[in-house]
Amino acid sequence: xxxxxxxxxxxALAAVPTVATAQEGEKFDCVVSAIAADTKASIxxxxxxxxxxxxxxxxxxxxxxxxxxxxxxHGITEAQKATYFDYSLARISREWxxxxxxxxxxxxxxxxxxLDFGPAGANPDLSSDMSEDQIMAIVQxxxxxxxxxxxxxNAAWEKVGAYAAATSIYWNKRKLLPF
Length: 179
Hints:
Oligomer: single chain
Radius of gyration: 20 Å
Order of helices and strands: HHHHHHH
Strand content: under 5%
């Protein structure tokens, strides 16, 4: 009987981190889950330069409304609100751009490795401009992966740059969210 109680207690304790992780995931996923696929595509395209200022403003207002709902739902503080919005915008853009540049045979993993993006990566801040060294690191990484860069047009490179910027913001804002 004692072994049964101990086993039950161990199972209950083992479930606690999973519940906490699930709640954390819900906070990170809330905005992304609440936005329709076509709106995500529009946001991603806008972040890659598509559309005009008025259409981008309308998308960002729509995203802000959803983000505000998630802030209220999950008890995210007022001080974290802007960071949460930026994280959500970067995540949506990044996820769209992954698929978009993959269609151009430019895997996003090459950029991630070249610039050391990831949960334990250096995640350089690209919120302004990329340095010449960072651009060359991406180009060289694509060359090393077998991409004929002479066949990559400027529009594709702009999307790769947008992916790098979105990924930088994504990881750096995520680190600032303590949940």
